[in-house]
Design a protein that fits this description.
Order of helices and strands: HHEHEHEHEHEHHEEHEHEHEHEHEHE
Distance between the termini: 90 Å
Radius of gyration: 29 Å
Shape: globular
Number of strands: 13
Helix content: 25-40%
Largest sheet: 7 strands, parallel
Strand order of the largest sheet: 3-2-1-4-5-6-7
Structural class: alpha/beta
Strand content: 5-15%
């Protein structure tokens, strides 16, 4: 049947039959067919005159007729907005309907990022800083249903306009599934008393999903990085993805809907089994891989060679879990291969990649523009700082050889501080402090931000790691020298991957604007 004007929420075009039960006629505001009858006509309250025309339904000034297949169109067919009629369970007041109503057209508002480490989250912020400005400079997307006068249809309902709402496809407020945060500049003036309104950044539409690790240092840095992300207008969703036997099922189930609706997915670790599993669910047409340390180099090389995605420091033998997960890993590798329906971008500070990326993979340089614009310039001290590495924890370098190398570097270059990697063990750091006299510093944020904020030594020493590529970019123009010490092959353990020696050499060889230090004077004690 063709819906009548009353079915669309407006007054009936002509007289209609009275219902079996006595009720006011159309001139007194009778409800349209299918609507629940109101209580005694409000127009006949004491002191009021009867209405001579049907009461007009208040509409938001910017509302326009909606297509019948949208949430707004369904609302109009039911007779108006949520203020006019209590919502049944399947009405737009339900969480699922609210998600659909707040889900804008494809674009930056449909971007989900998955991170598992502070460095990944930092690089997501750098990607967003480099990307959002370019997307905002594009012409506005035409509305699907223009208003009669040609005005664009608003993307958000009047009840949610003007305030930050949840990211598309996810229920709840911006802090609903987030982590506790400390008061910051955006809270100035908030609370009791008079004062200026709190500073609220404009929502960017980027949702960062933190798949929280077990490591306490990583969790602490992630919480602080999450606050920096919120201060940029991004929403953060904290997932205890490793919180117990049922945590993976709950996490994947809770993210399945947003993943299917996402237009773009940003990942920080393509080797993560969690991320690979999530990639099998998404239908996104754009995939972006941001740096996860030096692993990005190995990822591009394996993708170009068509190999399985395996971390460079793992040995070739595959256990039962690897064999069981092999189909998922293969599916993720296919998802990370561009085709005519899906684009793949690598956003990296490793611009001098050892191999050519596969055809169709776009490589974009990360120059740490956000870090340089948000922090610094740093206060520079006269001393030398030494950056630690987790090569011992990953089983690549022997602990005694590493301790001897650290002691020799501190002695030969006058280092006074040792910036610990977030995964270095407390026992190892205690031995370094006792043997070398170095002040061991546990950074609360990624080293690129810590160094940019200062104070930092005039010379920064490091073993082959991510920082020999990122620190020269973050500290550009400051006059600070970054030096890298090669790894002597005799330092490697017998359990180290055969790929380890060549990979560490590639990390050093492809670094730019660094000073190289030979490994020979630092032979094992």
């Amino acid at each position: 049947m063709t819906p009548s004007a009353a079915d669309e929420g407006g007054p009936a075009p002509g007289p209609r039959a009275r219902p079996p039960r006595p009720a006011p006629d159309a001139a007194e505001g009778a409800p349209a067919p299918g609507l629940r009858a109101r209580r005694a006509p409000r127009s006949r309250r004491d002191g009021e005159q009867p209405l001579t025309t049907p009461p007009a339904v208040p509409e938001p000034p910017e509302a326009v007729p909606a297509p019948p297949n949208t949430a707004a169109g369904a609302e109009r067919r039911r007779g108006g907005t949520k203020e006019r009629q209590p919502a049944p369970p399947e009405s737009p007041a339900s969480p699922a309907s609210l998600e659909a109503a707040r889900d804008p057209a494809p674009g930056p508002a449909r971007t989900l990022a998955f991170v598992e480490s502070p460095v990944q989250l930092l690089n997501v912020l750098e990607w967003a800083y480099a990307t959002v400005a370019g997307e905002q400079s594009r012409p506005p997307r035409p509305s699907a249903a223009p208003a009669p006068d040609g005005a664009s249809r608003p993307s958000r309902s009047p009840r949610t306009a003007g305030r930050p709402g949840p990211a598309p496809g996810l229920p709840g407020s911006p802090l609903a599934r987030g982590v506790p945060r400390q008061p910051g500049p955006r809270d100035q003036g908030s609370g009791a008393g008079t004062g200026p309104a709190p500073v609220r950044p404009e929502p960017t539409g980027l949702l960062v999903v933190v798949l929280a690790p077990h490591d306490p240092m990583s969790r602490g840095q992630l919480r602080r990085m999450a606050e920096l992300a919120r201060d940029q207008g991004h929403e953060v969703r904290w997932e205890e993805a490793r919180g117990g036997p049922t945590a993976p099922v709950a996490t994947v189930g809770g993210l399945a809907g947003p993943l299917r609706r996402a237009h773009r997915i940003v990942i920080g670790d393509p080797f993560s089994r969690y991320v690979q599993l999530l990639l099998t669910i998404t239908r996104a047409r754009e995939l972006v891989v941001v740096d996860d340390g030096t692993a990005t180099m190995e990822f591009v090389a394996q993708l170009a060679r068509g190999e399985s995605l395996v971390r460079w420091h793992r040995r070739g033998s595959r256990g039962a879990r690897d064999l069981l997960f092999a189909p998922v890993s293969a599916s993720a590798r296919r998802m990370l291969t561009p085709n005519d329906r899906r684009s793949v971008e690598v956003f990296t500070s490793f611009t001098a990649l050892p191999v050519e990326p596969p055809p169709g993979v776009q490589v974009r340089a990360n120059d740490f523009a956000w870090t340089r614009s948000a922090f610094g310039p740093p206060r520079i001290s006269r001393g030398t700082d030494l950056v630690g590495t987790s090569l011992v924890e990953t089983g690549v370098v022997d602990p005694e050889h590493y301790l001897g190398a650290v002691a020799a570097l501190a002695r030969n270059h006058g280092a006074t501080r040792y910036f610990a990697h977030r995964r270095e063990s407390a026992e190892k750091l205690r031995r370094i402090a006792d043997r070398t006299g170095l002040e061991v510093v546990r950074p609360e944020l990624p080293l690129e931000i810590v160094a940019r904020r200062g104070p930092v030594g005039r010379t920064v020493l490091s073993f082959p790691s991510t920082v020999v590529h990122t620190l020269p970019l973050a500290l550009a123009g400051t006059g600070i020298t970054v030096a890298v010490c090669d790894i002597d092959p005799v330092w490697l353990t017998e359990h180290a991957s055969p790929r380890a020696e060549g990979f560490l050499s590639e990390v050093t060889d492809t670094a730019r604007d660094v000073r190289r230090l030979p490994a020979s004077p630092l032979s094992a004690p």
